Amino acid sequence: MVPALAQFIVLALLIGNFGFQIDKQNAPTIAPGILWLALVFAGLVAFGRTFAAEREQASLEAMLMTPASPVAIFAGKALAASLLLVICEAVLLPALTLFFGTPLSGDVIFAVLLATIGMAALGVMFAAIAARVRARELLLPLLTLPLWIPFVIAGGQAVQSAMGLPGNYQEAIGLLIDFDILFIVLTSLAARFVLDE
Amino acid sequence: MNRYERWAAAAVALMLVAGAAIFFYAPTDYLQGPVQRIFYLHVSSAIAAYGCFAVVLVGGLIYLRNESAVADRFARAGALVGVIFTTVTLVMGMLWARPIWGTFWTWDARLTSTLVLWIVYAGYLLVRRLAEPGRQAARLAAVVGIFGFVDVPIVHFSVTWWRTQHPGPIIVNDALPAQMLATFLFTMACTLVLAAVMVWIRYRIETLTDERLHVAEPVRMATSREPEPAQ
After folding, report:
1. Half-sphere exposure of residue A153: CA atoms within 13 angstroms, side-chain side
2. In Å, how far are A84, A95, A105, A160 from A28, measured between CA atoms?
3. How many beta-carbon contacts under 8 Å exist across A and B?
4. What contacts 24+ positions apart, CB below 8 Å, involve B22-26?
5. A85 and A46 Cβ atoms separated by less than 8 Å
6. A153 shares contact with chain B (CB less than 8 Å)
């Protein structure tokens, strides 16, 4: 899974390179966009596999019969998936600097990590929903992407300003933290209804 | 003619009267010309769509609380009708924006969040179609409907946060001329009646669909038990 995702990210950067005419001047305007596109789609690939083992072995019911609460199952799945995303980011951020020459600062990393938290909470919930319907490969992106948009708006703003474009970094980070809290609370409340027979 | 057809005919007649008011009663806007007449139906259908999605939200919350089939059917009906009215809003808004703003689309907060609204509830309808009908579809869809309702104001708010310096939409906050205001209020009332009638008819369709499903299940169970030989 990890090598596949790393390869996916390098491919996304390759496509970004040919899709845009990138030079030293416009790299900071384009690189944040490529970063979020690659991260969001790598995230979809990662979350598409979240409940794959349970589906293939039909063990979701068995897992629900354990004393673990649905919130605990969600939290475990979200931790595992966000670890995958963090590994993706560990490939993506240095590769972005390597290929496009944009600065890799602590501010960029912090913003991306903050966005990862909320994206993981939402991603796990929609992966659980998609795991129970037909055509899940189709439905997962259609459900997840609109809910990830707030993170892309605020995270995009934060990364842009960290890379030297106009924008307010502090405000964007504040908003990311708000979204993280909101969606962690909401998904914990919803866990019981999604993971119930 | 049953009562559904009578109400549908009444709603259509009301919309025709509203159309007449829009084109013959309301004065032509001094600055925008006849294009401004789009405003009446555009804003009305946006409000009708919000009303429908409020039905989805409330229906979803009630369903998660007590599994009421009625609440779930209303949520289903509201989502479908709401997506239709959102489509109307988006298309009419784009037709208006082309001559007035010079472009069909701009990434303004209102436009972005309306587009997200459309995508979220189109996804809701897909969940309904793809999930196992019954409890599971109702629960999963209720969760999607609630999250969607939370998502839209957030997108709106976070775009406004940074893009207020962009040329925004000309929102009518100064008082409209009396004739325009009357036309707008009348069109809005007619559109809301139309939306309510559409939700009501759709609710009836969902009820009939549910009944057909409920009838089908016991019959299948009965036939599967039949081959057991009587001792």
Report:
1. 28
2. 26, 14, 13, 7
3. 77
4. B22/B183, B22/B187, B25/B179, B25/B182, B25/B183, B26/B179, B26/B180, B26/B183
5. yes
6. yes
Digits of tens for pLDDT over chain A (197 positions)? 788 888 989 999 999 888 888 888 888 889 999 999 999 999 998 888 888 888 788 887 888 888 888 889 889 999 998 898 999 999 999 999 998 888 888 999 999 999 999 999 999 999 988 888 888 888 899 999 999 999 999 999 999 999 888 888 898 999 999 999 999 999 999 988 888 76
Residues β-bridged to residue B29: B33
Q: How far apart are CA A193 and CA B139, in angstroms?
A: 6
Q: Is the whole model's pTM more than 0.95, yes or no?
A: no
Binary contact (A129, B144; C-beta < 8 A): yes
- Chain A residues 1-60 within an 8 A CB cutoff of chain B: none
ipTM entry: 0.86
What residue of B is the nearest CA neighbor of A161? B162
Question: Which residues are A72's β-sheet partners?
Answer: none
3-state class of A23 per DSSP? coil
Distances (CA, A) of A169 to A83, A157, B84: 25, 7, 39
User: What pLDDT shows up at residue B168?
Assistant: 43
Token output for A71 = 């919130």
How close, in Å, is residue A107 to chain B by CA atoms? Answer: 19
Nearest to residue A5, comparing CAs of A32, A40, A54?
A40
Going from the N-terminus, what domains does chain B have, and what CATH number goes with each?
A: 3-163+175-225 (1.20.120)
Query: pLDDT by residue (tens digit) across A42-83?
Result: 999 888 888 888 878 888 788 888 888 888 988 999 999 889
Q: Which of A143, A153, A179 sits opposite B144 (nearest CB)?
A: A143
Q: Do A182 and B150 touch (CB under 8 A)?
A: yes
What is the domain partition of chain A in residue ranges? 2-194
Q: Which two tokens stand for residue A185?
A: 């609370």
Q: Does B131 touch chain A (CB under 8 A)?
A: yes
Nearest to B190 by CA among B83, B48, B95, B92: B48
Q: What is the pLDDT of residues B159-186, one digit of tens each?
A: 777 665 444 444 455 567 888 888 989 9
Residue A36's nearest CA partner among A176, A130, A171, A187 is A176
* Residue in A125, A132, A150 nearest the CB of B158: A150
